[in-house]
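FAQ

Q: What does a record look like?
A: Structure on top, sequence underneath. For example:
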């Protein structure tokens, strides 16, 4: 969601900015722009199209310092006049990611002070505020610091001035931003993938940091204005890991990466003979001994992972578990329990609602916190005492796939470690689960072999407007995830229900035009599910059933069966997720949608 790239170098920065923006495209955007300093003037190019269009429009642009941006509209429609960078009095240019909550009051004040607004954005107030302080003789750094002190809200920003071709100021609070350290050149970006062509040496900024970047060095000031040192880290992200390779879309690539992503996430555990709390951090043993319940906070797909985990945690570990949508929990008055472990789940680790929910939980007195996250340096990881990193690698497709299955694997590990801590796991059971986890990547690989059959099945959905997903128990969250995948990339309206709930309402929707997709594992609820499927068939509904071996659900008129290779016991939700991801992918191909960048959506939702 919004992407920032900036550079100050001894060469033309325009190609660096454009390539960086192109690498941030996956975050989601509706317009793009850049600005450079050239001969003491700001030269700006903006476009409502793709970065490719901005590249064409920037062919003649040249400068040794510049900032660039992809915008995901919040305040003001997607249009060229609202695209960043925003400029004040032809002198100060700003790019911004986040939301300025007090922008209306600032706009009124700045208008009265003689500033003319040319956009509907909240960002433009930052440009004018910096200008107002700069015009009073402050340095660009001091002017930016003074402007930031007047803002309420979240931001990552980059600032340059027409008469200062040597300095780029950037800052973050509530939105991600990192520095890239080069030789005689320095960079700033929303995430490291944007900088890989120019440097691997990065500095992750802390909340409230303000930075003055020059060609030969940089200075970082913390939220109190004190100059500080931050560690330079070498990013392990490989350039190949963010390239598409032989695949048609990132989503397809990422679906196929799941066996490896799971193997990597489970590596340390599968190579050992026993499960230890230490995989969650040094303090985990003491924390796990102290807690009596779990509270999971997350959004979207990560929330679905939490919903599945609740079944494991209560059944296997015998620990009470609540799962809440982060955007709701953050505003809800709940009853805190200091013996609760708050678990935040997030692919990006930057989701604004999940961060706010975690902070809300902490403010209520929750001291035990654990992040399950795919980005090691992210805000959520840094905000929690304990962590388990999923090792899915970069997920570029907006529709989350490998992040979800690795989150499930991580949550299963949490379940087992808690079960062991609570004396609910025999040594024999522990070995059996470890054996099943070691087998998981190859079991997922086998499910992926269903791809050609699912591609064929997807043809049935091309003309559909609606779809209903059914699951029961542990697989109800998987039905929810299947419906989310289908709706977000194919734009087909999809809903998921626990199958037992059908006759309490949704059965009214079922007729011959309503495809009903069911997850049918060979578990204790199978016979109940079969009865629910009969109810659908009796109303003329067309059934698409992903059935485990030995379920004895047979293909017939109006019943399409996709046979799963094996039943994976408690790990079955991970296997059953794969065909639903593939189904959504191939339906989206049929519909010709932009699979990796579905309309209106962003990869990391860094604003509320
Ligand atoms: O980065 P997070 O896991 O915190 O993101 C949460 C949701 O925004 C995300 O899962 C979203 O629902 C995906 N687009 C689903 O595919």
């Amino acid at each position: 969601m919004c992407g920032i790239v900036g550079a100050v170098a001894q060469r033309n920065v325009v190609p660096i900015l454009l390539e960086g923006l192109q690498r941030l495209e996956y975050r989601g955007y509706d317009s793009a722009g850049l600005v450079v300093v050239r001969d003491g003037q700001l030269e700006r190019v903006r476009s409502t199209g793709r970065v490719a269009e901005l590249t064409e429009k920037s062919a003649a642009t040249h400068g040794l310092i510049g900032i660039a941006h992809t915008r995901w509209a919040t305040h003001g429609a997607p249009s060229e006049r609202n695209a960043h960078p925003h400029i004040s009095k032809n002198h100060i240019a700003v790019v911004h990611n986040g939301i300025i909550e007090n922008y209306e009051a600032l706009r009124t004040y700045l208008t009265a002070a003689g500033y003319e607004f040319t956009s509907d954005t909240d960002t433009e107030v930052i440009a004018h505020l910096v200008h107002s302080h700069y015009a009073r003789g402050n340095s660009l750094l001091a002017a930016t610091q003074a402007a930031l002190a007047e803002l309420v809200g979240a931001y990552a920003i980059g600032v340059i001035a027409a008469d200062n071709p040597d300095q780029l100021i950037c800052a973050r609070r509530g939105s991600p931003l990192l520095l890239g350290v080069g030789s005689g050149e320095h960079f700033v970006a929303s995430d490291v993938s944007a900088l890989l062509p120019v440097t691997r040496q990065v500095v992750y900024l802390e909340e409230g940091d303000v930075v003055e970047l020059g060609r030969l060095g940089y200075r970082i000031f913390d939220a109190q204005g004190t100059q500080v040192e931050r560690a330079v880290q070498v990013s392990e992200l490989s350039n190949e890991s963010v390239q598409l390779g032989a695949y048609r879309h990132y989503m397809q690539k990422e679906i196929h990466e799941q066996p490896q992503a799971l193997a990597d996430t489970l590596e340390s555990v599968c190579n050992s003979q026993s499960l230890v709390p230490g995989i969650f951090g040094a303090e985990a043993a003491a924390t796990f001994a102290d807690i009596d319940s779990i509270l999971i906070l997350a959004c979207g797909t990560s929330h679905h992972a939490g919903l599945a985990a609740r079944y494991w945690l209560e059944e296997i570990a015998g620990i009470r578990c609540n799962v809440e949508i982060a955007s709701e929990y953050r505003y809800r008055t709940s009853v805190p329990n200091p013996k609760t472990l708050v678990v935040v789940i997030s692919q990006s680790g930057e989701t604004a609602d999940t961060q706010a929910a975690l902070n809300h939980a902490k403010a209520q007195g929750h001291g035990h916190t654990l992040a399950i996250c795919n980005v090691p340096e992210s805000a959520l990881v840094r905000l929690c005492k304990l962590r388990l990193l999923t090792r899915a690698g970069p997920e570029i497709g907006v529709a989350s796939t490998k992040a979800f299955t690795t989150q499930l694997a991580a949550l299963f590990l949490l379940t087992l470690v808690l079960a062991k801590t609570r004396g609910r796991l025999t040594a024999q059971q522990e070995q059996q689960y470890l054996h099943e986890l070691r087998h998981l990547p190859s079991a997922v690989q086998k499910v992926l072999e269903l791809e050609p059959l699912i591609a064929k099945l997807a043809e049935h959905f091309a003309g559909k407007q609606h779809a209903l997903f059914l699951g029961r128990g542990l697989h109800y969250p998987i039905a929810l995830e299947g419906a989310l995948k289908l709706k977000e990339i194919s734009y087909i309206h999809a809903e998921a229900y626990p199958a037992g709930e059908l006759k309490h309402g949704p059965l009214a929707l079922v007729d011959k035009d309503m495809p009903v997709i069911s997850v049918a594992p060979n578990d204790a609820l199978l016979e109940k599910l079969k009865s629910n499927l009969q109810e659908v068939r009796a109303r003329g509904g067309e059934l698409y059933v992903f059935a485990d071996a030995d379920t004895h659900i047979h293909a017939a008129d109006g019943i399409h069966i996709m046979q799963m290779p094996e039943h994976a016991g408690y790990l079955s939700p991970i296997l059953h997720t794969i065909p639903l991801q593939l189904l959504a992918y191939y339906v989206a191909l049929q519909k010709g949608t932009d699979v990796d960048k579905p309309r209106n959506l962003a990869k990391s939702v860094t604003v509320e």
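Q: Is there anything notable about this one?
A: The chain has 18 helices and 25 strands.
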